[in-house]
Amino acid sequence: MLVVFALFIISKAGGLIYNREFHTGLSKLSSNDYLMLAGSFHGMHAITKQLCPAPPTPNVQPASAAGLAPSPFSSRPTGIEVLESSHFRAQCFQTLTGTKFLLFTEPQQPNIDSIMRKIYDLYADFVMKNPFYTVEMPIRCEKFDRGLDGFVKVRS
Amino acid sequence: MTTPTQSSSSGGGAPGLRYPSNKKTIYDRNLNRSKNAELSRAAFAYLFVEMISYAQKNVRNLVDLEKRLNEQGHPLGLRLLDLLLSRTSNPLSSIRPTRILPLLQFIAQTLWRHLFGRPADALERSESDAGQYMLYDNEPLVNQYISLPREMSQLNCAAFVAGIVEGVCDGAGFATESVTAHSVGEQQAEGGGTGGGGGMWPGKTVFLIQFKPEVLEREEILGRGGG
């Protein structure tokens, strides 16, 4: 059983570029509210990123790491990942390029990681490989919608 | 003084054609080397994205865009005809097709298998026009990741594949008026469906191949001679 309430995709700049509800009976928000919600989360995410008291120092041994290029991603603190309340759980996944996927589910929902992974797959296939999609712009891709429907509805 | 020597060596003499360091160009390779090679689908998808963006530059309308995609495919078709014929194991069948039906079979079977790893889904002759043939693909590989925006719903990016087909026909000496790609998904759903594919194959595409009258004339003469 899979209960996914909604999916937001937030661009690198903090704009809401995709929002989709999978569950009926959620309280309605105006489109302005959605944008504000996405913007607030983006800001909160940026703040939590700075909260890490002592940024982990990259402890690389020069001998072993000489041949490897330094990874800009591994040592960076990630910011907020999960937000849980009595009624929902918001899981955030940030891609290496800074796009954020925000997934709202039931609090007891297991293996959200694999759901997120699958959504990321769909995004990589049907959004990023679509010649008519401009990066950072709102996502209007029929096949992406259909893929999400197929994945979320089949399993719920 | 180092700069001029560097630039002359990297230029490799004649402009346009660059020689690798071992002096082996693509023309020195065995033609069968890449016979069973497979290409990453994602790599092709990204390349195709760039090809479409390139074709979209300064384009006036959708017809123009499809024409440009068609032109990108045409030289591929010309070369693939020779390549695939030279690769056939049976020397008798490496003669290029001289009649319409063998040519279309070659396209639907050999060419499709080479490009997409499976044969085309159907081949039909138009009832109203003797010079028109329809080649169906239920799920064109080139369109796999493409969602068209609403204002471009008339476009079908398989125009690129139509260009390849046109190149093969031209190369074999079968002049075509045009080869065009059209989506048939919705039409069939509305009309009750002759193939019943509308709902199951939303991306179903038909390639309309229109031969020139002189090709049909020759076909008729050949038919009389043979039968």
UniProtKB/TrEMBL annotation, chain A:
InterPro entries: Longin-like_dom_sf (IPR011012), TRAPPC (IPR007233)
Subcellular location: Endoplasmic reticulum; Golgi apparatus, cis-Golgi network; Golgi apparatus
Main location: endoplasmic reticulum
Annotated PANTHER family: TRAFFICKING PROTEIN PARTICLE COMPLEX SUBUNIT (PTHR23249), TRAFFICKING PROTEIN PARTICLE COMPLEX SUBUNIT 4 (PTHR23249:SF15)
Family: Belongs to the TRAPP small subunits family. TRAPPC4 subfamily.
Subunit structure: Part of the multisubunit transport protein particle (TRAPP) complex.
Protein name stated in the entry: Trafficking protein particle complex subunit
UniProtKB/TrEMBL annotation, chain B:
Keywords: Endoplasmic reticulum, ER-Golgi transport, Golgi apparatus, Transport
Segments of this protein annotated with the region Disordered: 1-21
Any one Gene Ontology BP term: endoplasmic reticulum to Golgi vesicle-mediated transport
Keyword Cell cycle assigned: no
Coiled coil spans: none
InterPro entries linked to this entry: NO_sig/Golgi_transp_ligand-bd (IPR024096), TRAPP-I_su5 (IPR016696), TRAPP_component (IPR007194)
GO cellular component, one term: TRAPPIII protein complex
A Pfam family matched in the record: TRAPP
Location(s) in or outside the cell: Endoplasmic reticulum; Golgi apparatus, cis-Golgi network
Entry's family note: Belongs to the TRAPP small subunits family. BET3 subfamily.
Name of the protein this chain belongs to: Trafficking protein particle complex subunit
Species this chain originates from: Aaosphaeria arxii CBS 175.79
Classification of source organism: Eukaryota, Fungi, Dikarya, Ascomycota, Pezizomycotina
